[in-house]
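Archive entry: two folds, one per protein. Generate the first.
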Amino acid sequence: MNINQFIFSKTQPNKKLEVIEKLSNDELLAVSESTVKKIIQEVGQRRYKSRDKELRIDYDRRVGNDWNSVFEAVGTYKKKLYVHLYVQYGDCDTDTTEVVDYAKFFCRGKFEGEIKGIDYHFNPKYYYYTYDEDKKAKCIRSILEEYIYSKYADKLKAEVA
């Protein structure tokens, strides 16, 4: 099954969610950039005074690397895709949102990101976060699920009630 075509087909939302849950990591990593761009164009929110859009992942569907980072959103900026990652580093009070190129983040293999910070003596210090292919596949699954829940919110609520 080609998920790039199935996600936009005329199938019931519950059936789409079932199929998304059963996809393997290789099938999830086969989701193309054009599919993600189309998802963002359909259900993403416009940024203030901009043509660019962003699809924020709901808190219930956010996934991360189970260590110090969480996948927050995916968006476009001047027709290029970017990933927004919340990264906590240093002590518990130090965090930031990193913006990473989509193609670089979702390429095959492990993604290793770094943040340059400073210690309490103002010396430069590097903090790292990593995503393996399993975690990246979960990030794509959260994008697909967010699309279904955003686009078909009324139908899903009607079926639950």
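Generate the second and append.
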Amino acid sequence: MRQRSATKRSAYTLLEVSLVCALLVVVGSVSFPTVLDMYGRQRIEAGTDSVRAAWALAKARAIEEGRPYRFSVVPGRGVFRLAPDLDSYWSGSAPGQDSQGQGLIKEGTLPAGVLFAGSDGATPSMGVSPAAGPTPVGQFTRVAVFLPDGTAREDIAITFHLNNTRPRVLRLRAMTGVVTVKPQGVR
């Protein structure tokens, strides 16, 4: 019969465990920025998708109701609003009697950290949080008006910004309604 060697060990040494831990820390520190970048791109894509959905809804409601619908944002925040393009819907109070029936009013927010850049495409001010409560109607800036014939009044470009992530631009062609999404700086 064979005898077992008396030197057989049943555990790892402290040096081996320390080396494995150090290797895990190095691999984690190298991969962490990549994971954050992927997560940031996903949030910007989710923001562009929510705006595209709002645009599709605005276009459909404009065609269905036979009246223009306005899409507005608050620059520097992640808040948007969709309602008929009548002053009574944008005055800050509930619209009174509407001869065409009650129109849809929809407000939405972008994913956490994603903001609409200013009209010049510059990085928005980070001083205002998107979750700061209800947004007064007077803070909204008109971006697009969708007409009952399925077109928009003018070509539109909206820039979405998230810290440490490349901004993305969502474009709408007025006459065709084609929507494209590209990183900022790409034509």
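Annotation attached to the second fold: Residues 34-183 form a domain with the minor pseudopilin epsh fold fold (CATH 3.55.40.10). The first helix runs from residue 14 to 65.
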